Amino acid sequence: MSFGSRAHVAMQAYGPLCVGIDPHSHLLEQWGLEDSIDGLDRFAATCVEAFAGKVAFVKPQSAFFERFGAAGVAILERTLQDLRHTGTLTILDVKRGDIGSTAGAYADAYLDDDAPMAADAITVSPYLGFGSLTPFFAAAEKNDAGVFVLAFTSNPEAIRFQTATASSGMSVGDEVLVELGHANEGADPMGSFGAVIGATVAHLDTQRLGFNGPILVPGFGAQGGTVDDLRRLFGDVTDQIIPSTSRDVLAKGPDVATLRAAAAATNDSLSLL
Ligand SMILES: O=C(O)c1cc(=O)[nH]c(=O)n1[C@@H]1O[C@H](COP(=O)(O)O)[C@@H](O)[C@H]1O
């Protein structure tokens, strides 16, 4: 089944929430863990225990694993493998993007079903041109995986760049959404090629949101995005959105039941959308 279909099923079963696994050093400390490989290992294993089979999506943030070098990356690999086939889909947050031939190697690393680091979906950056992402789309299609392309990100610096006018006359971010519409054409109930749009964005042209794909919405929670913001920004397409929060839920750890309850409460708050 395609990633878009699997995402649709998971959202129906568990609600739309994505919980990010972002092992910040201050969270490790807050959980009574050392800022070390052993601490990272315990943190990631606790997240898997808390969220596997309980939420639709989990999004490990690669940077927090990479900071420990190869040993950290090995823990990321294990985390992704432990989440496979639990009903919870993995979105590996790596924000990759490069010239096409190199993009192909990144696609092999993360989207090939047999790769040690295989995820259900990854985040990618379109700033080498939307066309440079073709190898990611091809690999995703072949492996029933998904791709989330940065469109309007949650950080305050983004707006000057992503709302700039491209040579097409559209903003850079809108061009990403239009291209995603082409990539998802004909998919039912939802395509596998998504956008990343922050919950903190001031304004969105809702006409551009009908691109028939999932919308990953970080910035919800710790960065200030609220359920009201989701309603304001995504009005007619709230059934496409995957609100994502990391610190807001993770701060409730390390107790597994408390983490689970925090994710469930957040999912409940989203049922009002
Ligand atoms: O691609 C992302 O997930 C992402 C895009 C974006 O626009 N903003 C954003 O915060 N993120 C990621 O989402 C997570 C947000 O974490 P919290 O602010 O703790 O919920 C981090 O891992 C960010 O790297």
In the CATH classification, which architecture applies? Alpha-Beta Barrel
Main sheet: strands, sense, barrel: 8 strands, parallel, barrel
- Strand segment count: 8
- Strand content range: 5-15%
Q: Could you give the distance between the termini?
A: 27 Å
Bound molecules: orotidine-5'-monophosphate
Average residue-wise pLDDT: 97
Total helical segments:
12
Q: CATH first level: which class?
A: Alpha Beta
The 3D shape can be described as: globular
Radius of gyration: 17 Å
CATH superfamily: Aldolase class I
String of helices and strands: HEHHEHHEHEHEHHEEHEHH
Entry summary:
The protein has about 270 residues and is α/β, with parallel strands linked by helices.
Q: What's the SSE blueprint?
A:
Elements lengths: L2 H12 L3 E4 L3 H6 L6 H15 L5 E4 L1 H5 L3 H14 L5 E8 L3 H12 L9 E4 L9 H10 L2 E7 L5 H5 L9 H12 L9 E5 L17 E3 L9 H8 L6 E5 L1 H4 L5 H15 L3
Parallel strand pairs: 1-2, 1-8, 2-3, 3-4, 4-5, 5-6, 6-7, 7-8
What are the key terms here?
273 residues; alpha/beta; TIM Barrel; 8 strands; binds orotidine-5'-monophosphate; OMPdeCOase_dom; Aldolase_TIM; lyase; orotidine-5'-phosphate decarboxylase activity
Describe the protein.
The protein is an alpha/beta fold and 273 residues long. The protein has one domain: TIM Barrel (Alpha-Beta Barrel). It has helices at 3-14, 25-30, 37-51, 62-66, 70-83, 100-111, 134-143, 158-162, 172-183, 227-234, 247-250, 256-270; strands at 18-21, 57-60, 89-96, 121-124, 146-152, 193-197, 215-217, 241-245. The protein has an eight-stranded parallel β-barrel with strand order 1-2-3-4-5-6-7-8, surrounded by six helices. Strand 4 (121-124), helix 7 and strand 5 (146-152) form a beta-alpha-beta unit. The model has no long low-confidence stretch (mean pLDDT 97). Orotidine-5'-monophosphate (OMP) is lined by residues 20, 22, 61, 93, 123, 153-154, 196, 198, 218-219, 221-223, 244-248. The site of orotidine-5'-monophosphate has 19 residues, from strand 8 and helix 11.
